[in-house]
């Protein structure tokens, strides 16, 4: 009798768990698509691209100057005294160090490009996330996947794509 009660309890638990699991609502969004449909994001991305190209050119020019200094040194090395060799080598090393520091200043982990991206893009991403959370609460979704981030979504029925709904919630589509 005791075993029978345990079996019935187990079957009931499995049945209820299965019923609740089937009642869950899921949706997905494509945040790349959402960002591309927000003019402020596109403007921010253009600004970042322009800055990045400008800084890349500045760094490339610096490395070109280092290369030029090194080639000039190689051509003149036989004519230089030990003291002059040491000074030129030191100048080349210092210039290369300066260019590497500039590169790190612009493109490093806490560099200018990172800070500018945080300033321009993070508010937009926060706004997107806020809209997604509101839709999730309003629509009683259990999970919303982001197909742009490479989530493990093997199949996604387009009828559950709420990307346009997110844009509409944010005031970008009607």
List keywords for this structure.
174 residues; mainly alpha; Protein Binding, DinI Protein, Chain A; two-stranded parallel sheet; 72% helix; elongated
Please characterize this protein's 3D structure.
By secondary structure, the chain is mostly helical. It has one domain (26-169): 2-Layer Sandwich (Protein Binding, DinI Protein, Chain A). It is built from seven helices and two strands. The chain has helices at 2-22, 31-36, 39-76, 82-107, 112-120, 122-139, 163-169; strands at 25-29, 141-146. A two-stranded parallel sheet has the order 1-2. The mean pLDDT is 85.
Shape: elongated
Order of neighbouring strands in the sheet with most strands: 1-2
- Please count the helical segments: 7
- Per DSSP, what share of the residues sits in E-state strands of 2 or more residues? 5-15%
Major sheet size, sense and barrel closure: 2 strands, parallel
Can you identify the CATH class?
Alpha Beta
In short:
By secondary structure, this protein is mostly helical. 72% of the residues lie in helices and 6% in strands. The radius of gyration is 29 Å and the shape is elongated.
Secondary structure: elements and pairs:
Layout: H1 2-22, E1 25-29, H2 31-36, H3 39-76, H4 82-107, H5 112-120, H6 122-139, E2 141-146, H7 163-169
Parallel strand pairs: 1-2
